[in-house]
Structure prediction request, 86 residues.
Amino acid sequence: MKLSLIVPCYNEAENVAEFQEAVIAAFQGCGYDYEIVFVNDGSRDATLHNLKKIHAAQKCPVKVVSFSRNFGKEAGIYAGMSHASG
Prediction:
C-alpha cells in the first residue's frame, strides 16, 4: 500500500522543510511506501523556491504542484489528489 500526504501551502516558506522532516520521522518504520504532494497555492513568498529545493534533495518521494494564483485550500487538495499515486 502506498500513502499520499497532500499538503496545500500558501506562504509557508519558513515551514515546508521542517514539515517534510516531521513527515519523514512520522512515517519512518511504518511499513508503507509514501509520498508527499505539496501544492503551492499561489504563494507570494519563497514557498515555491523552497519546495523545488526539497524536491531536488530527494530525502523522500515528493511531488510539487504549483498554481499561478491563490485558488484556495479545496482546489489545492483536489489538485493534490489528481497528482497523487497512493
Notes: The mean pLDDT is 97.
